[in-house]
Amino acid sequence: MIYENKNLRKLKKKRKENYKDMRLGYMTNAFGPLVGDGAGVTSVKDIRYLTMGDDEQILKQITEVGFKSIEVLEGNLTKYSGDLAVLKDMLMKYDAELMSVCVGANFIYKDALEDEMYHMEAVAKAAKEVGATYIALCGGAIRGKGIQDGDYKLLGAGLDEARKVFDAYDLEASYHPHLGSMAESPDQIDKLFDVTNIAICPDLAHLAAGGGNPLEIVKKYYDRISFMHLKDLDDNGFAPLGTGRIDIVSILDYLKEKGYKGDYLVEIDGYAGDPLEACRVSYDFLKGKLF
């Protein structure tokens, strides 16, 4: 692998100086329909994920369960770009923080990359002002004719460009292997991380659904982990922690044995049940395991 971890070590050192204890966050995207910003249909620079819903009500519910950090989709951050004080005041009201932001892009189309980086810059500026630590990058478009020779190099180069944007704002960018992207199966993940300097944000359920063994992938890429996404998987899809077939305890135990000092983000997106109940179940599952 060509990975050079000096930059990640620098960011992790700075993170440890700012946060002495492990942080546990929750992703807001399960609390409403996931859409793409309408302007993005005709303008690459405006493509972004967005969770539809009442942001304050969602934050209130999550913090009442016990989580004090959140991750949001990029659109749920940049919608406040005209007045970020609204979002900062909302977080302060519920004694919460924005730990991370999820950002999506195609990354492989050279003509579009400039405008995708324009979008990354807009996200970086807002994320920095609100106090985020992490950026989880999703994407890697699959062409209509399938993945082509050279697409992994294009994706790797695009991710490295995005990382540079976020590095400039002291934001820790990592790639989130994801269903429906070019890095879904274990061999695809390996192909990508052989050609990029980006860190990894492992999502246990996406790794399992992509045909991998989450524990083995976490072990393989341990030195590249930025922060962890926790979710479970059952026969119906993504599920609250402890209700599916992933051996989450073994993964947490391994990370503890390795001395992992990073943060965790729980994400139960795509769950057909009550999102608030999924939040509660997942929080209760982690009692005595992470806190």
Automatic annotation (TrEMBL):
Pfam families xref list: AP_endonuc_2
InterPro entries: IolE/XylAMocC-like, Xyl_isomerase-like_sf, Xyl_isomerase-like_TIM-brl
Gene3D superfamilies: Divalent-metal-dependent TIM barrel enzymes (3.20.20.150)
Superkingdom of this protein's organism: Bacteria
Keyword Isomerase: yes
Keywords: Isomerase
Residues of the Xylose isomerase-like TIM barrel domain: 60-286
Listed GO MF terms: isomerase activity
SUPFAM superfamilies on file: Xylose isomerase-like
Keyword Isomerase on entry: yes
Name assigned to this protein: Sugar phosphate isomerase/epimerase
Source organism: Aequitasia blattaphilus
